[in-house]
TrEMBL record:
Taxonomic lineage: Bacteria, Bacillati, Bacillota, Bacilli, Bacillales
Signal peptide: 1-23
Name by which UniProt lists this protein: Glycine/betaine ABC transporter substrate-binding protein
Matches recorded under InterPro entries: ABC_Gly_betaine_transp_sub-bd (IPR007210)
Main location class: membrane
């Protein structure tokens, strides 16, 4: 009987030991799972949600991925601006990590008030930028009043974003929203048209990129030019073609040159073959953007794959 009791006691402690052992292992697994959950880089599968191939921010992000050790092994998912926004909205709804290529002006900063740029210690994305107006050589001589109006065009990040946000929220085309914006902002329009004589139906060819930011500026200027008696045609093309069109004289002007960093290579490739009319918007910015609930502040907080 003693032996029987002894066996039961030994069996009890053996079982208890096994329980503690399994609990300890389970605790380690939980710790590992928790550590993985805390790694935003792992959760996003070491991928950046980007936009169209060839866009200035896409090219700059490819450079950043080469220069930052933390981005070693990462992938840049190139799709479209609309697809990027869908993924961003989905992540924010579920409070999930996501890293996207972002820029101001863009209506996503008006829609989502919890976005932040990751610090860029190597300054790959540059500091704040400006969007410049460029014209083909000879445009000022041939059409001085249209040139003067475009040269005097200047507005703010908030102006541009308000048009983009209104379009995204209402579903109205940016051309329609831009037309209403011009009607609602006579003081700014008066400044742009100061000293500009009415045209006689001369055609002005504007070339731009197909992004909402540039569509906003192009349509606003086009509307004001039309109010002064000019015919206006806007052609949306890839950014490389924007600069080629100016150099070849196939377009009169563009309002879409992001400098000094985003479109630097395109700008320098035809420098001397166009007229730089200066900034039409200051305070533009590009970089990697994340929701502020992610516990990272810098590109260097990301982890190599």
């Amino acid at each position: 009987m003693f032996k029987q009791k002894r066996k039961k006691v030994v069996g009890f402690f053996s079982s208890l030991f096994l329980v503690f052992l399994l609990a300890a292992c389970g605790s380690d697994d939980a710790s590992n799972d928790s550590a993985e959950e805390e790694s935003d880089s792992a959760v996003v599968e070491h991928s950046i949600t980007g936009i169209e191939p060839g866009a200035g921010i896409t090219v700059t992000t490819e450079t950043a991925m080469e220069e930052y050790d933390q981005l070693s092994g990462w992938e840049l998912e190139q799709s479209s601006t609309a697809a990027m926004i869908v993924e961003l909205e989905k992540a924010i709804e579920n409070e999930e990590p996501i890293v996207v290529t972002g820029w101001n002006p863009h209506w996503m900063f008006a829609k989502f008030d919890n976005l932040k740029y990751l610090e860029d210690p190597q300054n790959i994305y540059g500091d704040t930028e400006e969007i410049r107006s460029l014209a083909r050589e000879g445009f000022e001589d041939e059409n001085p009043n249209a040139y003067k109006l475009i040269d005097q065009f200047n507005w703010s990040v908030e102006d541009m974003e308000s048009i983009m946000y209104e379009s995204s929220e209402t579903g109205q085309d940016i051309a329609e929203v831009s037309k209403q914006w011009v009607e609602d902002n006579p003081d700014k329009v008066d400044a742009w048209t100061a000293g500009v004589e009415d045209g006689n139906g001369e055609t002005v060819e504007l070339v731009s990129t197909p992004w909402d930011s540039e569509r906003a500026s192009s349509n606003v200027v086009a509307e004001v030019l039309r109010s002064k008696g000019f015919e206006v045609k806007i052609t949306d093309v890839d950014v490389a073609v924007v600069f080629e069109a100016l150099a070849n004289g196939d377009a009169d002007a563009t309002l879409a040159a992001w400098m000094p960093n985003t479109h630097k290579d395109f700008y320098e490739s035809i420098e001397g073959q166009f007229v730089d009319m200066g900034a039409n918007l200051e305070g533009a910015k590009i970089g990697l953007v994340v929701p502020d609930y992610m516990d990272i502040d810098s590109i260097e907080d990301l982890e190599a794959k």
